[in-house]
Amino acid sequence: MTYRRLLFVLLAVGLLGSLFVAVRRERHEHRANRVEIVMDDQDFQSLARSYAYDQRALLVALRRAGLTSLAVQEELGGAVSTSSTAAVYPGTTLLAQAKLSRFSDPVFAKLAANGIRSDEVYLVAYDAPTAARYTQQLALKFSPRAVRVLRRGTPTVFAIRTQADYFTTVGLGLPGDRVALAHQLGLKLVPRLQNDERFQAPQIGALLHDAAYKHDAHTVVFFGLRNQVLGYPDAIDDTARLMRAEKLNFGTIETYDPKQDQAGNQSLATALPAGTVRVQAIAKPEQDKLRPEEIVQRYDLGVRERNVRVVYLRPFGHQWAGRSIEATNVELVKEIRDGIRKAGLTVGAASPFETFVTRWWEIAFASLAVPAILLILLDLFGVRGSRWIAAFVAVDLALVLGGYAVHHDMAARKALALLAAIAFPIAGFAAIAYAFRAPRPASLGAAIVDGIQVLAIATVVTLAGALVVVGLMSTPLTMLEIDRFTGVRLVLVGSPIVALLLYLFTSRWNARVTVERLGETPVTVLQLVAGVVLVGAGYLVLVRSGNQSDIAPSTFELALRAHLTTLLQVRPRFKEFVLGFPALMLLPSLVPADRVRWGWLFALAIGVGLGDIVDTFSHLHTHLSISVLRLVNGAVIGVVIGAIAVAAYRRLRKP
Asked: End-to-end alpha-carbon separation of the chain, Å?
């Protein structure tokens, strides 16, 4: 077997291993096909009370439109005063009142006679269920000596030794009337629970059991002033174990900045890989600035493209197209439900990814593609030998197996995936090096066919790298974006820079540039302007990468994105269909003089486009089928733009 053939066999083994993982992943993504549409109960009550709406009737209408669940938050001490079943009085308030008049209630009259404490808060429950809930919750949140029951009958009166401002932040369990309303209307319950850093397994178990038992609850979303998951910082493993026992899923809230993640979010998701679902919510201040169509589109994109399985809604407080506020919210839910169904998903209790474990031998096989492509690239430039194969494969397997041995396999997998994400686009660029030397096609039709051929070759080779990244990096945590692939920006920058350096300083692309010649060649004004524009464009590419950037898209770009999404369902990437693909199409049509003068610019553009192909699949929280469709859409539009560019160039630039 020849040296090069051996390298291609090694590459084929790695690609087959990656394909095996990718197929398994696609099956798991396909099974996680239920999306839960949830309404925030606190904001819903606020809207209904503001406009005197019939809450029961509105919830029924929302349920018929597609609403599946009601997110009921723990009652905080500060919210007791708005409840119809309870009241709370700081000791200082009662002392002030006692100085002005006598108490009619015998309990408080007795307190006034025997001494009301300024360091206590007095909690009154007007019915038995509320009293029972307070009894249970106060035992969880306070020590026995801090709580006294002054009256056990109805109304029940508790005296809690604490500061009034602290009591306002204490969770007192899920309000029974709201839980009962959800049950009566056939809505599932999404408990919103608050952490207490003092909690251990018994308290966590009691809180979860109380929230889930006989309540048709499947997903828990945590909240709190400190933005922590239950069990943070020292009892997260207990939380995971007890949530599995209660068959509850953890709703991880989608954020664009890791600093906004709930404390303990990654640890709990890591402990519950098969019990975590992705939650998308729009903050109320931001939602008030959006049009209903934009709200629907955001949730639609989240469900289709980012594996969101819980759509967390807040009521919309404005009219829409002549509809009342009530009808507007019903229509919003209906359109979100219809979008979910159009995406091939169903509405119901959110379904997490089933247990998806990539075994060490699968990753070992998939990783062989990395040394293979590196050795193939070295072989193209005259570096070869059987010792190189042995050394590269040994280092590769040592990284993978060593990573598993010390329980840091993801670090090794990320490093190998980053190498693949840069090396395969360079291999794609090398595969079409002949186009920099080939004679110009004689006709327009032949030029377009040659351009499509060049585009296809470069894209297929680069896609092999995307497959390797998927094979190495696919886990439930990366598919939920709990664990992020941190090399995206390096891929976007590395591929064009390496492509440019290879073009300039190797002979394969027929540039015939040396360092001495480069220094002696005068720089024209046009080239200088092009260089400045490229530096600015490169900076924009870098800072605009990711879901959130320091530079927001322009109004025109946002409108174009929206139109492309509406037309194609999955919007292609601008760097591919505007830059990379047209450059590949136009390359064979260039006259020799333009290839010499502008070849470096085409090397950069092609490097950006090919790197972006891998970047598309590096967004591991996006369903594989969506990434494939995004690439296909971009290729089709890129071919059309490229064909127009070829026709225009041939008309203006005669040989």
From this structure: 45
